[in-house]
Write a structure and sequence with these properties.
Strand 1 (about 70-75) and strand 2 form a beta hairpin. Among the domains are: about 1-25 and about 140-175 and about 275-320, no CATH class; about 180-270, Roll (Chitinase A, domain 3), CATH 3.10.50. It has 14 helices and 6 strands. The longest helix has 27 residues, at about 130-160. By secondary structure, the protein is an alpha+beta fold. The strands form 2 sheets. A 4-stranded antiparallel beta sheet has the order 4-3-6-5. Strands 1-2 form a two-stranded antiparallel ribbon. Mean pLDDT is about 80; it is low at about 1-60 and about 335-349. The relative contact order is 0.10.
Length: about 350
């Protein structure tokens, strides 16, 4: 049901247009590769006009730099593209792209914009502005944009920072508690070596020093074998059972065997997994709030509208009224008369 609702909302505001994409994408880190950018911009590289300074195909090429902070970064058939053109183009990308450092994705964005301008010029030279397919798609795009903007404004009327914070608090309140352990370990191949390490710990040697010297888990041996916090289901069963059975600052008295070898484990502390900080998930919560508002609005708009539906063959679909549905549920099942069984004649053996 949720899947169909999401599809319906996407159709309402226009899939891939405006609000439905830009407000719901999670932030992405600064490392954005060329394939990711190309995929995100495939649908917008053709005919995506980002700047008046570079969009006119009839104006003469501008050799003048806009300013010291806005140099020419490319020329397409003699027409200049400026750094601000590329930055404006980046602003049209999905939200996760906009979260990246502009300098990191600038070369790839520039390539995309140059390609877009080349296609723009070719389309204009062949008078594609009046092509029937272009006009039809422009009309569809206008419809989608109109829906999107209307939905944005309707949502903004109900959206507030207070609602976002309340939603976050409700989410945190309903997060199930998960116990976590903070532990260290030393991993070796032989059981006897693990026993020797335990003997050294019993004699007062420091766990961190032994981890650096003996552990074959090089991902954390230099850090004293520190594994950080983990839930019981995050590790293999044998390891988790041993770690969670310990008391703080206690180490295992016997080697713990797993598929990786023999472990010596020290528990540092236990805790309930903390909720994510509001600042770290604010964008995701805002997206959730906007989705919830839109879903509620769509339900209200549908309820207020007069709608007639027909099936695949054009026959009217009769909607079952809530009252009829309740009555059907409450009506007791009719008792069927007991079937009379024929009387069997006494048989004489």
């Amino acid at each position: 049901m949720k899947t169909f609702t999401a599809i319906g909302l996407a159709l309402l505001v226009g899939a891939g247009v405006g609000y439905s994409v830009s407000h719901y994408m999670a932030p992405m880190g600064p490392n954005v590769d060329s394939k990711t950018l190309e995929s995100a911009t495939t649908s917008m590289t053709v005919g995506n006009d980002t700047s008046s300074s570079a969009s006119s195909t009839s104006s003469p090429a501008a050799e003048v730099v806009h300013g010291p902070d806005d140099p020419v970064v490319a020329k397409v058939n003699g027409k200049s593209l400026y750094r601000t053109d590329v930055l404006d183009f980046i602003k049209t990308l999905p939200a996760q792209m906009q979260q990246a450092n502009p300098k990191d994705i600038f070369p790839m964005a520039l390539d995309q914009l140059v390609s877009a301008k080349i296609v723009d010029e070719k389309a204009t030279s062949e008078n594609f502005d009046n092509d029937p397919v272009v006009l039809k798609r422009m009309d569809l795009a206008k419809t989608q944009i109109r829906r999107s903007v209307y939905a944005e404004k309707a949502i903004d009327k109900q959206f507030s920072d207070e609602l976002v914070k309340k939603t976050y608090d409700d989410i945190v309140k309903n997060i199930p508690k998960v116990e976590e352990a903070h532990a260290r370990h030393i991993l070796v191949d032989a059981e006897d070596q693990a026993k020797d390490i335990i003997a050294k710990l019993n004699s007062g040697s420091k766990f961190e020093d032994l981890a650096k010297e003996f552990s074959k888990d090089k991902s954390n041996s230099d850090n004293g074998g520190d594994l950080g916090y983990f839930a019981q289901t995050d590790m293999v069963k044998e390891f988790s059972d041993a770690a969670f059975a310990l008391k703080p600052n206690e180490h295992t008295k016997t080697p713990v065997k797993t598929q990786f070898g023999f472990h010596v484990i020290q528990l540092l502390e236990k805790r309930d997994r903390p909720a994510p900080k509001f600042e770290d998930v604010k964008l995701q919560v805002e997206g959730q709030v906007r989705r919830d508002i839109l879903e509620k609005l769509v339900a209200e708009w549908n309820k207020a509208a007069t709608v007639e539906k027909f099936d695949y063959d054009g026959k009217p679909i009769v909607a079952e009224t809530p009252a009829a549905s309740v009555a059907a549920e409450e009506k007791p099942a009719e008792e069927k008369p007991a079937e009379e069984k024929p009387v069997e004649e006494n048989k004489v053996e």
